[in-house]
Design a protein that fits this description.
CATH superfamily: Clavaminate synthase-like
Radius of gyration: 19 Å
Number of domains: 1
Length: 314
């Protein structure tokens, strides 16, 4: 097979995060060198984008399997029909009413995928199918650079902290009954280090997912609230982020161990449709600076899709 890495170009989109990869056809089998080049770019830039790939469901799954082990489409909400690896990210996948019922802060909606699990996904691969003519952009932030942006004193403090991440049905909002029941059936809660050591790069990562991290262990409720607000405000500073404007056929792949991202809310103020599909790859158990791994409080690890479906069937 020809060495495709000769044609790959990696073009950074922002100083700290995000790069566009061209010169590769994700609809074809990739050789070892090409897969390594993609992974190297992912580790360096945290999120990479491939324009105009136009994969179908089978092509999406085939590419994902070359980069890792797919999980069930979503550990709580399941998958689309006939493709257990794929989760539908549609405009109205959950009820979006009463968006003004709770305070909206700069970090509201930012999250790292499924950090309530003992082993959150290694990476996520999102495919754009139906894209608005304008609006509907996605943001990512680099949590390794955010860690470095803290003062030396603050890094010394957060290095020893641990936090509880929880996937829970919201209170006081108008989510759908099916949404609430899905969350209750698959309760997930885990104690993770606030700073995890990246298993491939060795970087220290500020592992603080605003949507799932609920409290810091060992602090009073007020201390925890203030510390989390400070950290969440810090990680979404514009200089750590990249904003991506989707086009139909685009693929975004991000390192879920070192990023948080923000899905758009502006599309709910328009009549435009928006349909994307996501696959996540099996991740490892985070380990802190002190070498201590995460500890599950509720729920089971996220397994490769064949293993999980086989266990469910048995």
């Amino acid at each position: 097979m020809a060495d495709l890495t000769r044609t790959i170009e990696v073009k950074p989109l922002a100083l700290h995060i995000g790069a566009e990869i061209s010169g590769v056809d994700l609809g074809r089998p990739l050789d070892v060198a090409t897969r390594k080049a993609i992974n190297d770019a992912l580790l360096r830039w945290k999120v990479v984008f491939f324009r105009g790939q136009h994969l179908d469901h089978r092509g999406h799954v085939a590419f994902a399997r070359q980069m890792g082990e797919p999980t069930i489409g979503h550990a709580v909400f399941g998958h689309i029909e006939d493709f257990p690896e794929i989760y539908s990210v549609a405009k109205f996948r959950t009820a979006q009413t009463n968006r003004g019922a709770r305070p909206q802060r700069p970090w509201t909606g930012w999250h790292t995928d499924i950090t309530a699990a003992l082993n959150p996904p290694k990476a996520s691969i999102l495919r754009g199918v139906t894209i608005p003519p304008y609006g509907g952009d996605t943001f990512w932030t680099n949590l390794a650079v955010a860690y470095q942006g803290l003062s030396e004193t603050m890094r010394g403090i957060v290095d020893g902290l641990r936090g509880v991440h929880r996937f829970q049905a919201p209170t006081g909002t108008a989510k759908s009954q099916a949404y609430d029941e899905s969350v209750r059936r698959r309760e997930m809660e885990t104690e993770h280090p606030i700073v995890r050591v990246h298993p491939e790069t060795g970087e220290r990562v500020l592992f603080v997912s605003p949507s799932f991290l609920k409290t810091i262990v060992g602090l009073t409720a007020r201390e925890s609230e203030v510390m989390l607000d400070l950290l969440w405000e810090h990680v979404v500073r514009p200089e750590y982020t990249v904003r991506f404007k989707w086009e139909a056929g685009d693929i975004a792949m991000w390192d879920n161990r070192a990023t948080s991202h923000l899905a758009p809310t502006d599309i709910f103020d328009s009549d435009f449709d928006r349909q994307l599909y996501r696959i996540t790859l099996v991740g490892d158990v985070p380990v802190g600076v002190d070498g201590r791994p995460s500890v599950a409080i509720k729920g089971e690890p996220i397994l490769a899709v064949e293993t999980e479906l086989t266990a469910a069937a048995g």
